[in-house]
Amino acid sequence: MEEGAATPAAQSRLAVRRGERGDAGRICEIYNEGIDDRLATFETEHRSAKDIEAWFDAGLPLATVERDGRLVAYAVAHPYRARPCYAGVREFSVYVAREARGTGAGKAALEGLIELAKADGAWKLLSRIFPENAASLALCRKLGFRVVGTYERHGKLDGKWRDCVIVEKLIDA
To answer: What does CATH list as the number for 3-170?
Structure first.
């Protein structure tokens, strides 16, 4: 993965790299912000660094983005299903620290993840995104993901039904 320029407003450099076990604490902080924001996950309870370390134990593709030496975003891909026919399908998530939103860090993280997932043998990435998460949907469109459809009333968050927009991209073509 290579270093890339942030948007002019950021006035800094973004560096993309494979995540390392030592990043678990900061990744956890960023993920917990996302949980608190209620815009990107059905999760309601904070995670611990130990929870994130399990991702590294499992060998998941995980790209991180640093801005001025501080980790500000990450993207991770989990296996979609255990059945062998889905071996190359990964479900991804992208999270950006509040202070880095709108700087291109999410785009850099997802681009880095696409590279890592390809190297890991993936042929497709997909995600479920809340319809209200306009930034995530715009990012996915920008990077060539297509909307497949919407799961209606997919789950409850804080007692309210939430829909999920499904996006996918073939990455081995």
So the answer is: 3.40.630.30
